[in-house]
Amino acid sequence: MKDAQPRAIYLRDYTVPAFLIDTVELFFELDFEQTYVESRLAIRRNPQAVDARASLVLDGEELELQWLRLDQRELAVNEFSYAADRLEIRDVPDQFVLHSRVRLEPHKNTALSGLYKSRSMFCTQCEAEGFRRITFFPDRPDVLSVFTTTITAPAEAFPVLLGNGNPDGIGKTDDGRHWARWHDPIPKPAYLFALVAGDLQSLDDEFVTRSGKHVTLRLFVEAKDLDKTEFAMRALKQSMRWDEEKYNREYDLDVFMIVAVDDFNMGAMENKGLNIFNTAAVLANPAITTDASFQRIAGIVAHEYFHNWSGNRVTCRDWFQLSLKEGFTVFRDAEFSADHGSATVKRIEDVALLRSSQFAEDAGPMAHPVRPDSYIEINNFYTLTVYEKGAEVVRMIRELIGHDAFYQGADLYFARHDGQAVTCDDFVRAMEDCSGRDLGQFKRWYSQAGTPLLTVRDEWDESAGVFTLHVSQSAKPTPGQTEKAPWHIPLRMGLVGSAGDLSLQLSGVQLGTEAVLELTEPSHTFRFEGLNERPVASLLRGFSAPVKLDYPLPRAKLAHLARTDSDGFVRWDSVQSLALQVLLERIEDDDLSAAADETLLAVMRDVLNDASLDGALAAQLLSLPTELYLSEQVEKIDPLRIHRARRGLREQLAKALRPELLAAYRRNQSQEPWDINADQIAKRSLKNICLGYLCLLDDNEARECAKTQFDANENMTDVLAAMTSIVHNEHDANGLLADRMIAEFKTRWQHEALAMNLWLQVQSTRPSPSALQDIERLRRAPEFDIHNPNKVRALIGAWSNANPVGFHRQDSAGYVFLASEIAALDAMNPQIAARLLTPLTRWKRFEAPYAAGMKAALQTLLDAPSLSRDSYEVVSKSLE
Known about the structure:
By secondary structure, the chain is α+β, with helices and mostly antiparallel strands. The protein is built from 28 helices and 34 strands.
C-alpha cells in the first residue's frame, strides 16, 4: 500500500490508552554518523482501559532495533513484532519495565522531525508525532511521564548538552566524550521532549518570581548570533512577569532555556523548560530585523512561554483538541502584544490575517472545525483555523461572560486540570462554572466549520425616534457539513450620531453607549428607542466575532464612521469597506481610466493631515485591502484583473495625494537614535507606507527619498521598505536603481541568513509577469537551500502565496513549477511540501484558464507513486 492512502483517524473513535508510563529514562549516545538511544519505560496497565488484557503496542518509525528487554529478560524475535511503524508485545504483565536500544541516523533526517542535525547541531522536534522517530513509545498526548535524559557526545564538537527540566549531573568519559543528565520532575507527554547538543554560546540572565524563586534564563545560539539575543531575553522576562500579573501563573522549574535553530519546520516549540526556536523567530537586531519581525518575535517568545501552563501543565487529551492549547495560547499572546503596544493596531493586524487567510481556509476544500472530526495527517491541522480562529473562540467567551468571570475561569481551569490531558469541553466547563452561563450552544464554534455571515438591515422611524436592526445569520456548506445550526454570536455595537456615540436604549433598558447583542437564533430584531437623529450602526466593534458582515452603507456614512467612531477597529474597517466598494467596481469594469473616488480621497487626505493621529493606526487606515482579501470578495477570481484594479487605484491615490504623502513622509523622519518603542515604530510605519505610495509614481523626488533612505542603512525596516518600493515598481528610471539596491543588499548582508531571506522575499514578490524567471534563477542561486524551510518559505512560499500576478499565469507555467518543487520537497520534508500546496487548493474559485492549470498540477501530484500522507491528504481533498 502506498504511503499516500492511509486510513483517516476519527475523534469519535478515541479510547483511553491501554498502558500508562510513569517514568522514562533515556540514554543518548550521539555521534556524527549514527546515534544510539536506550530507553527504560516503567509501564503499567491503565485501570480505565477498555481491554484489560490488551497487548502492548508502541509507535516506532525508522528505528533500527538493536535489542528489547522486558524486566531484564531479552525478548526473542517470536515474542514481539515490529512492522509498519508499530511494535507489539503480546502477553505482558500488568506492570513491568521495558528496556530497548535503537540506532538512528540523524544526519539523514531531512524531514526535521524527531532527532536531526541542523548544521553542526543535534536537535529535536517531537510535536506532533516525532518522538516515535527517537524511541518506541505510545506517541500520544494523553500519556504523561516523568523524564530523565542522559546525553553523551564528543566533548569538543558538542560542548553544550541540553534536555528538559533541571540539570542533574555532568561528567567526562575516558574517550574524549562527556555527558549531562537532565531531570524533568513534572509529568509531560512525549511531544514535549527536547534535546539539543552543539557548540553554542548563551546569553544568561535571571528572573525572580513573585514568590521569590530565582530562575536561571539562558538563550543559546551559535557564536555568530550572540549579538542578536538581547531583545528576545527582554521579551521573555516581560512574558514571565505578565503571566504572573494577568493569569497568576508562575514558572515552575529552576531554569528556562531557549535554543535558536536554523533548520526548523515551525516557528518555535514549547518543549518543557527547553524551548527550541526557529532562528527567524528569536534572533533580532535593528541591522537585520524589521519592526514587524521584532513585534512578531516578542509575540512568539511570549506564546511559547505561556504554553508552560496552557499546553504543558495542562495538555491535550488527543490531537483533535489541539486548539485547547494553541487557540488559548494565541489569545494569550495577542493580549500580551496588545498590552505592550497599540491594542487597536494589534487587533487590526489579527483581523486582517483572519479575513484574508483563515476565512479562505474556511471556504476551501480543507475547511474544518476548530476541533476537527477527523484527519489523515495531524501535521496538516496546524492551521489558521485551529490557531487564529481558535483564539477568536476564546475571545468570544470573554466577550460573553465578562472579563472578571473569564480570568476566574482560567484560574479554575489551571487548578482543576493541572497535570492532566483534557478537552475543549473541560475548558468551556470551567468558564461556565465561574460565570453561571450555559455555553452549550456556543460550543458549536468548536464543532461547525465555516464562517457565519451576518446580514443586517436597518429601519428608521423618525416620528417615534426608533432605529431598528434586523440581524440574521447563515453559513455556506463545508466539506462533510451541509447544514449549519445557529451559532451563539456576540455582536458588540454602538450607534453613532453626527457628533459621536449615542446612548443606547434597547426595549426600554438603558445600556450606555455600547452593548453586546447575543445572537442565538437564525434572525433577531433589535429596537433602539429615544433617539433624536438617525444614527449609523457601528457593528462588530473590536471584531467581537469571526464573522462576515453584510451591512451595506453608502460611502458618506462609511466616511463618517471612519472619521468619528470611537472604536479604532471600526474606523479602519469603514475605510476598508469604502475602498472595497471602489475596488469591486473597478474589478467588474476593468477600467484603468476610472477616476479615484472622491470620498475615499477625502478620508485618506484627512488621515494624512492629522498629525495627532497615531502613526501606526494612520498607516493601517491608508492601507487598501490586499489582493488576497479581494479574491475572497468576487465570485470567480481573475488575479490579473484584481491586480490591475488595486494597482490602478493606488497609483491614482498617490497622484492625487502626492503633496500630503510627501509632507507626512518628511514629518515622520526621526532624528533620534533607533529604538523599538511605540513612537518610533509608528513613525516608521506611516513614513514607509507613504514612500510605498510615492514610488508608484514615475517621480524623481520619490526615487531620491527611497535611495537616500536605503543608503542611510539606519535599520532594516527602512532599508527593506526603500528597496521594496523601488524593486516592486518597474518604471524605466527604477530599473538600474533596483538592480543596484539588490546587489548592494547582498553585499552588505550575504553572511546573515535571516537578512538574505528578506532579499529572496523582496525579489520573489515582485509583481511582474516575468516573476517565474526570477524564481527559477534564484532557485539555482547559492543563497537558496531547498533543505532549509526558511528559505523555501522566503522564495517559493512567498512567490506562490503573496505574488498573485507573478504566480498565476494563463500558460500554467507557475503551477507546473510549483508542483515540481512540491514533489521534490515531499520526498525530503513532507510537512513543508504540504504547506506549499495551499495556493493550488482553491482552484475551483478561479476563472477557467487558471482553474484548469491548477487542477492539472494537483492531479500530477496525486498520480505520483509515493506521495506522503501530508501531501496526499491536501491534494485528494482539493480534487474532490
